Amino acid sequence: MDTEQRVVEVVVNGERVTGDVPARTLLIHFVREVAGCTGPHVGCDTGNCGACTVLLDGKPVKSCLLLAVQAGEQQVTTIEGLQGRCPRVLREKFSEHAAVQCGYCTPGMLTNATALLERDPGADDATIRTTLKGNLCMCTGYQQIVDAISDAGKTLREGESS
Predict the structure, then answer these.
(1) pLDDT digits (tens, 9 = 90+) for 36-56
(2) Which of 16, 98, 109, 2 is nearest to 62 (CA)?
(3) φ, ψ for residue 10 (rounded to 5)?
(4) pLDDT tier, 32 (very low <50, low <70, confident <90, very high otherwise)
(5) Do domains 5-81 and 85-161 have the same CATH topology?
(6) Mean of the per-residue pLDDT values of the chain
(7) Closest Cα to residue 22, out of 35, 36, 8, 4?
(8) Distance from the CA of 59 to the CA of which of 53, 73, 82, 98 falls in 20 to 30 A?
(9) Domain-by-domain residue ranges, the chain?
(10) Of 126, 132, 128, which is closest to residue 51 (Cα–Cα)?
(11) Closest CA relative to residue 50, chosen from 127, 111, 129, 123
(12) Helix or strand or coil: residue 30?
């Protein structure tokens, strides 16, 4: 068994977090156990469900597929660190469209959707579905989630034109 320890330094939600962890520590476990951000969930640990999605330097990644040492010196943003109008509008639209049921997948969905709408608030349903391919939801059937993201994009676009 590999017991080698590593000092890992990652910027999580704007705060520099340092931990002395086993070299094989996954980013999801570093974020939850060392940084204390429990919004991203541990789901499958195989990259299939997307519950652990975080932004790494602004791009969505499944944090169960990366070692913490691979994220060293990079910016990690969890659901707790999402700021601004886009995540606020998304949360409102998820509520309006009943896109949240058990809530387990929601942090990953919102994180992924925020990254999408920040680069393309006009994303169509096909683009939204493609973006969410790696985020599994066992409760809603996805249509409510797609509708919420589409509606959030519309609200964001209307805000830009006013």
Answers:
(1) 999 999 999 899 999 999 999
(2) 109
(3) -135, 145
(4) very high
(5) no
(6) 94
(7) 4
(8) 98
(9) 5-81, 85-161
(10) 132
(11) 111
(12) helix
pLDDT at 1 over 70: no
The CA radius of gyration of the chain, in Å to the nearest whole number, is 16
Domain 5-81 - what CATH class? alpha beta
Bridge partners, 138 (sequence order): none
How far apart (Å, rounded) are the C-alpha atoms in residues 114 and 129?
A: 14
Confidence of residue 140 (pLDDT cuts 50, 70, 90): confident
DSSP string, 66-125: SBGGGGTTSEEE-GGG--SHHHHHHHHHHHHTT--SS-SSHHHHHHHHHHHHHH-TT--H
Domain 85-161 has CATH 1.10.150.120: yes
Fill in the amino acid letter for 14. G
Query: Whole-structure pTM over 0.85, yes or no?
Result: yes
Q: What is the pLDDT of residues 9-21, one digit of tens each?
A: 999 999 999 999 9
Q: State the residue for tokens 């932004």.
A: 55
